[in-house]
Amino acid sequence: MGSGFTLGALGVLLLFHAAFSTIQYRGLLKITEEEFSGPPLNVVFELILGFMLCMYAGLAVPGNFQSIHPDSEENRIVSLPANLDYMIFNHRGRVISPDTDMKLRS
Length: 106
Known about the structure:
The structure is a single chain. By secondary structure, this protein is mainly α. It has helices spanning 3-32, 41-60, 93-96. The longest helix has 30 residues, at 3-32.
């Protein structure tokens, strides 16, 4: 486990702590009979920091991005023919065909 995963776990813990702090703050306001106008500033900073850590982990943990362009050769494993959608291997013609051991040409 790398540092990205550790920072992501820390970010999630910060988000849970900020939620718990907000719930406690609202309970305190109910006891003192004050109106809730928003979470305290330290909880807001904790939310922002936790969000940033989770975003960093989401981008760092999965790995490198690969090209999605069809002409790119860096992420192509095999070169397939362009009309692969029209190749059908399971059809009624195999019943009629005497040579059932026919192999595909590449």
